[in-house]
Amino acid sequence: MSGSRRSRRNRGDKSLSNPVIVPPSPSGACPGVDDEATTEERSYEIYYDDGEGSGLQPLPPTMSEFLMGSGFDRLLYQLVHIEVNSFGRSKNPPALKSAIESVPIIQIASNHDKLRDLHSVLPYVMEFPHQELLSIVMIKKFNLARKQIFRQNVTFTCHRKTGITRAIAPETTKATVPTSSSVPLANYVPVYVMLPLDVISVDNVFRDQDKCEKQFEELRAAGVDGIMVDVWWGIVEENGAGQYNWSAYRSLFQLVQKTGLKIQAIMSFHQCGGNIGDDVFIPIPEWVLEIGQKNSDIFYTNRAGTRNKECLSLAVDNQPLFEGRTAVQIYSDYMRSFRENMSDFLEAGSIVDIEVGLGPAGELRYPSYTQSQGWKFPGIGEFQCYDKYMKTDFKQAATEAGHPEWNLPDDAGTYNDIPVETGFFGPNGTYLTEKGKFFLTWYSSKLLLHGDQILDEANIAFLGCKVKLSAKATGIHWWYKDASHAAELTAGYYNLDNRDGYRPIARMLSRHNGTFNFTCLEMRNSEHPAYAKCGAQELVQQVLSVGWKENIDVAGENALSRYDGYAYNQILLNARPNGINKNGPPKLKMAGLTYLRLSEKLLQKRNFNTFKIFVKKMHADLDYCPEYEKPAPVSRSKGEISMDELLEATQPTKPFPWDEQTDARIGGILAEYWDRLLNKFSL
């Protein structure tokens, strides 16, 4: 369609005013097509009508190759990316009006499965879905050029004599994005949207049901696969130990099911409030807090003795302090009750994922950087192991290692210090000594054992259910490029340049066939101040790679709410680091993406239009597939993995290579530049 492509024609190939694209049909309705062709075997051939009543004639091979390239879908792709003033993706010159007027006639059998998607291609070009990503000046330029080039909208309608679809000018048309049938479904990445933290109120009521139903319908119309929701322990078991009230969540799930969305349910054994993005307060159950008033060592504690009541300390996992139950038994009973009371949704396949909460914000980590305790970015945070149970455990471990004189760190600084200001994380700091290495191994290993034990209980609770079990780690990207990785270490991720702190987590998850969920997929290093030594891109690459190397599914989410193509393109890159594979499954692909989160701002026209394009790109430009998420029944976890075997995974390996940018990009370079500019003012 460009000058460079026209030069590929042979001189003997006459210009044809009525080229015809004929997709084979099992019905035999298309001339020149084998009646035995199946949907899977379909290929496209080009014919033309010479206008003299002689019927369809095959095009010369070189002309056919010129028009079709690698197939019918490629031609449609070219049609919807026609250049106007060089604002599109390619370097082709603007399309001429004559080129538009000679749009190929398309014969499509009535039962062709892509008929709806091919019905109106050119109006998609003229409505230009990315215009909201561009500056006002560029939009005006585009619209001016469009008026000069396109005099009338064009769509496809049925030709009277032959039943062939011919391009004509209708009064009005509505664009439909063409679907690339050549892309295998294996490239599809499902998209979920996190619901507001208080969709179920703290007093266990599902409010604003009409509003939610409308929003869910908008999500479904946008191609979203499902929603994710916190199932708060502090709401459901608030009235007393073992007293569960699931009624509000059942009402919510019924509405979600009605609108055709799938459900990812988080077993949220933590407080809402005190972390980044928390705008509501939902504490853990009051009866647990009352026990904590008598024994505050059930909570994580920093060196100064400050208690963190977001969640229970892993130190009490096996302590029968809760009316005769241990913390692990509390979590297990809660999950079993969820299964019993939500069995109809589980059996119907509406619930497809159970994310098991393992710490603050539901993440497998220590609460090392809590805003309610004064932490501010990019502070290194503090170790959280100074309750009496953790102290006793460490002293016992040190004694068994032959060092009864070792104590917990006293030189690791406070929440808002930087590494160089501390004795522990500074150059030649304690973290490099035998004592420091022993402590960090103990600290991070306790986290692994904690996650493994609770996931084992989750496996038993949901045994036989057709769901995936998952666990989340968080993207602590600040100080990633400092030798100490201080912020990761205080959170329990013993990750250094010469030690992998995330692969042991992935290996532990592999025992339970669990999905490794990770955050900060939208972030780029350039978006953060240089002094914080952030490495979000390298961190994501490292974590996703170790998950794939351990042969488990990897999923993720954005850490902060973003609405721009610049952030979406980074997520798209991480979702398929080596792009779409048109011949089969991509080499690397995430199992799913949860977008943070549903809000009025997301649903604003500009933001939602961009989001809809993003969802389509996550789906590899395929149609929404309601049957994509069909997990196998949960089978019993494999045998226990020894700590020695888990720690063998700390040997660092190179991450898989990433492309420089996604091949499913939203907008062009100018649009991305505009997004970056706007984002600097909004962050």
Characterise the protein shown here.
- The protein has 683 residues and is an alpha/beta fold.
- Strand 14, helix 18 (536-549) and strand 15 (554-557) form a beta-alpha-beta unit.
- It has helices spanning 3-6, 61-68, 72-79, 97-101, 115-118, 122-127, 136-149, 209-221, 233-236, 247-258, 286-294, 327-341, 343-347, 388-400, 434-461, 486-491, 503-511, 536-549, 565-575, 605-618, 643-648, 669-682; strands at residues 19-22, 45-49, 56-58, 105-106, 155-158, 165-168, 191-194, 226-232, 262-268, 299-301, 307-312, 351-356, 468-472, 515-518, 554-557, 592-595.
- It has 22 helices and 16 strands.
- Helix 12 packs parallel to helix 15.
- It has 2 domains: 3-168, no CATH class; 185-281 and 310-367 and 447-658, Alpha-Beta Barrel (TIM Barrel).
- Residues 1-11 have a biased composition (Basic residues).
